[in-house]
Amino acid sequence: MRLRLPTALLLIGLLATLIGCYSGGSPTRIGSNAPDFTVQDSDHKVTLSQFRGQVVVLNFWGSFCPPCVEETPSLISMQDRLKRKGVVVLGVSIDDNDAAYHKFLKDYKLNIITVRDGAQKSSALYGTFGWPETYVIDRNGVIRRKFIGAVDWNSQEITDYLSKL
Hints:
Layout: H1 5-21, E1 38-40, E2 45-47, E3 55-61, H2 66-82, E4 87-93, H3 98-107, E5 113-116, H4 121-125, E6 133-137, E7 143-148, H5 156-164
């Protein structure tokens, strides 16, 4: 079978595009040390490395983000169930509006550790561009998994996974 030049060029372009989008079986940061950061907001100061020795569920979110709102109750519930196993949720809000951030904390009764990084410096370290994005970091500070989008943090698979880290 012989392809005409325009068809062949179109196919080559399509393949190049698909290959460019594919990054392999796992995100490039999986298995590497989690970039450390410190965020100071109007309430408190948080440094990622202060949680070394615990399993950290690092969740980048925004109060304006429907999928973030959707997964919030399961994050809270998961932390309540697994905190005695050394699992901690660290929520980093990318809200630039302090009032909206505080309203969200109050409305959803967030009892997880949260900090507001309106400048999005910490999420930039991770290459995060969509919300929510969540990284699971093991007790030694190594990134083990990445989730993009809302997750049911109460699923048996996730509970088992986090419990074994």
